[in-house]
Amino acid sequence: MTTTQVLILPLLCRMTYAAAGQPPEEPANTIRLGVNLVVINVNVVNKDGETVSGLGKQAFQVFEDGLPRAITIFRGEDAPVTVGVVVDNSASMGPKRSEVIAAALAFARSSNPQDQMFVVHFNDRAKLGLPPEKPFTDNISELEKALSHFVAAGTTALYDAMGMALSHIGRAVIDRKILVMVSDGGDNSSRSELSDILQWAQESGVVFYCIGLFDDRDTDRNPRLLSQLALLTGGKAFFPADVKDTTRICVEVAHEIRSQYTIGFAGSEDGKYHRISVIAQEPRFGELHVSTRPGYWGAKP
Hints:
- The structure is a single chain.
- By secondary structure, this protein is of the alpha/beta class.
- The protein has two domains: about 35-75 and about 260-295, no CATH class; about 80-260, Rossmann fold (3-Layer(aba) Sandwich), CATH 3.40.50.410.
- Helix content is about 25%, strand content about 25%.
- It has a six-stranded mixed sheet, with helices on both faces. It has a four-stranded antiparallel sheet with strand order 4-11-1-13, with no helix packed on it. A four-stranded antiparallel sheet has the order 3-2-12-14.
- Residues about 1-35 have low confidence and may be disordered.
């Protein structure tokens, strides 16, 4: 996919995953977005790879296609996020199910208490874990029920699950959006086209953290897809050698999300893809390294 592609996402794909009902009451600290306001999550570390906190707006510079952009929104660490946990419940994940549930709960307990979360399960079909009247929750007990509600069985419709998660998170009123996906990356049952889902993910501004769980007998595994998703959206992909490492990874991801800075700027309105780069400078911390998503699609004029 080149940076000059015009993004055309079929309306039918969006309609397939449209969720019913009204969004929850808006939290007081929600960032509301204008049509062309771009909001990015920014990680900052020092030369030793340690997270740097306490930076102010003046420490950052944002560039779009190499040209400076004025920062119109700035928020320090630990701003609330909307998080979707997307869990593979196909038959191959059966032996790993208890560890995955424990890891997802550890993630929730390590997250900001104001985060709004939801669950998407998938095997041959994708399903929301929370009841229809509860699109998002900040309650650990409700999240645990949502995670434990399904039994591992059947085939794998990963692309459909990603589409459902992207559609559902679009209803969120907290505009920092994260998807934590636990899967082997394989798909053998979806009706959705992978190319459409990848474009949707890139257009949405949602950041993917992918955890690849598979073994040598897993013929459907596709770690390349998980890495691609992370790269396209400014997230990370993890491939633990032991499923027991999943909890540690989830806690690390939760801590990273809480230490991110939120930066917003007025984006272009031309329907084209634009590259983003961010610089952070603060003499008392020495050399700083910044990571964020690589770009965004401008609003259509």
